[in-house]
Amino acid sequence: MFLFRSMVRWVAPASLCALTLSLTACGGGQAPSSGPSAATSAPPAAGGAGLAIKGAGATAPYPLYQKWFDEFSKANGVQIGYESVGSGAGVKQFLAETVDFGATDSALKDDERAKFPAKRGKAIQVPTTGLFVVFAYNLDGVDNLKLSRDSFCGIVDGSIKTWNDAKIAKDNAGVNLPADPITWVHRSDGSGTTSIFTKHIEKACPNWKAGSGKSVEWPTGTGAKGNEGVTAQIQQTKGAIGYTEFSYAKENNLKMASLQNKAGEFIAPTPDAAAKALTGVKIPEDFAVSVPDPEAKEAYPIVSLTWLLLYENYPDAAKVDALKNLMKWAMKDGKAVATDLGYIPLPDEVATKVLTAVDGIKAGQ
Description:
three-stranded mixed sheet, 18 strands
């Protein structure tokens, strides 16, 4: 087990099986464009090396992966193509061996691991960064929307239908809320972002009936594919509100609601508040941790890690070396990029354990 602790300096571990960790975050910068053209990252190979690596999966970390893979590719002469297709599709492609790595915002389940091809050894699941999911909205004249649990639960389940509903009005005293209808925007594809979001809704909303997972039967709203699609739909629709990863909302200048957390506090979505959600959280050796409703008073409530999926066995030694070098670069030089884009870099102790796990991949099998 690992334990995240909120400290400025890293504390030396007492043992390898019970590390005391620190998680910090800095202010977010702007992510790359999240429009349709950002669906695939495939920078050209440099230096004539000609090695190509293919990945697919989660859209939430795509702005970060796009930047990481571009910078690493230019410096190392390795072409890394990444399809931002959603966690569900990424896991399927990983299990079908049509990619060199997968990416997911929802840790592998037992039934997914059972489908892993035996010839590839075992599935290696490692976190790359922390991220958080926001309620982004398009409502003229309302810049600092607050949503209590009663309010956001009602929006998501369809029982609150207009912006001037009494519950939302109570949260936003003195704000002139329009009588416009609310358009709820959700994901239409299998999505790790949906898994993160619905796990929180399941905990926070007593009347929620749809459960949690990469796909659920939404009681209301309109669907869009990917964080890119949800963001675009909100931008295009007056009175819309939906869930998306923070960097997408920030890059597209969407307004984001402050949410009431478990402690009853209204918390604005910032990297620092999101990092507080992971303080004190124990994570197992396979890094599969979920924090559906964080306890901390100052914590933003919808936060998760996101993971890369690697095979233990690869037929190509050059790809093994490239993947190891990529992860070494990401866990060190890539931290500044994560901070700039508004993600939550992994603390050094976690990064070290990630690299130990990645060292387990091998060639010739």
